[in-house]
Every structure is written in C-alpha cells, then in structure tokens.
C-alpha cells in the first residue's frame, strides 16, 4: 500500500535520495556514468529544502507502509515562457522497484488537482527522448508537442515535451 500526500519540509532528504536513485536507474544508459556518479546528496538536499518552500510550487510524495518515500512529483507554473501551457511538471520520479504499480498516475492525479486549485488548466512536461519511462505521458493522454536540445554535464541530448490542454482529465479516476 502506498500513501499519496503533500511533501513536507522534513521530506527534503528523502526526496533528494529518491531523486538521485531514480536518476541513476533511469538515466544510466543515457547520461554519462561520471555525471550520474557525481550527483551530490548534499546539493540535492539543499535544492529540495528550497523547492519545498516555494510558493505556487507543488510537491506530492508517495510513501510506502514502512514510511519509505518511493516517488514524488514536483511542479508549478510553466517556466519556459510557452503561453499555450500554464503549468509544468518539473520532476516526477519513482524508485525502480516501485514502478508499474500505478504510483505515477496517482501522483499526477493529485498534482493536477492541486494545480487546478491555483487556476492552472493546462500542463507540460519535458522528458529525455531516450527515456523509456516517458511513454507513460502518452498513456495518460499527453500529446507530443515539441522537441528540443538539453545539455546534461558535457552531453548534448534531446528532450521531448508532452502537453495536456485540459488537466481536468488527469485528475479523473481511471475506468
């Protein structure tokens, strides 16, 4: 059983650990090993301590019965200046051993409901083109809307953007 709840300031360390572990599991075949090995828990904890204090920024976490943080989603207002999408998922990660259990869908459902309370009705997310996990966005009704470059460490990679014009569909329960 997994509980979906709002991320709290005291979750910063657990979110940072989950973030790094999920990056290493997800991006090992895509991102340079040296970059992944140098991900710093200290800097990620500082980042998440700050993120959890940002207004209009939502962080929702998934927690196991053993109170282990197994996934999270974070986002808020769209950051790149696209006027056709008002909200953005900045990060969504689930620990590898917890994937395929519907946790991502539950996180997105709660997150989109919270965005709707802020008056945000459309959403965008960017994912590395070679990330096999990105296909869940299509399953959840997102449309591929853009492709663009991103630099991670010394690597030039490609990102794909998915968009939802109406996020109310994301907050509806599955049939």
Written account of the structure:
By secondary structure, the protein is of the alpha+beta class. It has a domain at 2-120: Aminopeptidase. The chain is built from five helices and seven strands; from the N terminus they run βαααβββαβαββ. It has helices at residues 12-27, 33-37, 41-51, 103-117, 136-139; strands spanning 2-6, 58-64, 69-77, 87-94, 123-128, 143-152, 155-164. A seven-stranded mixed beta sheet has the order 1-2-3-4-5-7-6, with helices on both faces. The chain is globular and about 40 Å long. The two termini are 20 Å apart. The model has no long low-confidence stretch (mean pLDDT 93).
Quick description:
The protein has 175 residues and is an alpha+beta fold.
Please tag this protein with its features.
175 residues; alpha+beta; 7 strands; seven-stranded mixed sheet; 5 helices; Aminopeptidase
List the helices and strands and how they pair.
Blueprint: E1 2-6, H1 12-27, H2 33-37, H3 41-51, E2 58-64, E3 69-77, E4 87-94, H4 103-117, E5 123-128, H5 136-139, E6 143-152, E7 155-164
Parallel strand pairs: 4-5
Antiparallel strand pairs: 1-2, 2-3, 3-4, 5-7, 6-7
Known CATH architecture of the domain at 2-120: 3-Layer(aba) Sandwich
Count of beta strands = 7
Strand residue content = 25-35%
Helix content: 25-40%
- Could you give the distance between the termini? 20 Å
Mean pLDDT: 93
Q: List the total number of helices.
A: 5
**Major sheet: arrangement of strands:** 1-2-3-4-5-7-6
Radius of gyration using CA atoms only: 15 Å
Task: Detail the poorly predicted runs.
Answer: none
CATH homology superfamily of the domain at 2-120: Gcn5-related N-acetyltransferase (GNAT)
What is the CATH topology classification name of the domain at 2-120?
Aminopeptidase
CATH class of the domain at 2-120: Alpha Beta
Structure classification: alpha+beta
Largest sheet: 7 strands, mixed
Shape: globular
User: What series of H and E elements makes up the topology?
Assistant: EHHHEEEHEHEE
């Amino acid at each position: 059983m997994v509980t979906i709840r709002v991320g709290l300031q005291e979750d910063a360390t657990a979110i940072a650990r989950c973030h790094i572990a999920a990056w290493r599991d997800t991006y090992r075949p895509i991102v340079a090993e040296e970059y992944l090995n140098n991900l710093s828990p200290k800097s990620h904890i500082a980042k998440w301590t700050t993120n959890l204090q940002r207004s209009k920024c939502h962080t929702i976490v998934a927690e196991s019965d053993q109170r282990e943080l197994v996934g999270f989603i974070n986002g808020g207002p769209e950051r790149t200046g696209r006027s056709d999408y008002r909200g953005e998922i900045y990060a969504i990660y689930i620990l590898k051993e917890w994937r395929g259990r519907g946790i991502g869908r539950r996180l997105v459902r709660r997150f989109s409901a919270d965005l709707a309370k802020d008056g945000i009705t459309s959403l965008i997310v960017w994912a590395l083109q070679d990330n096999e996990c990105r296909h869940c966005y299509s399953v959840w009704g997102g449309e591929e809307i853009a492709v663009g470059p991103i630099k991670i460490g010394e690597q030039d990679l490609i990102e794909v953007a998915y968009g939802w014009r109406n996020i109310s569909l994301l907050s509806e329960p599955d049939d």
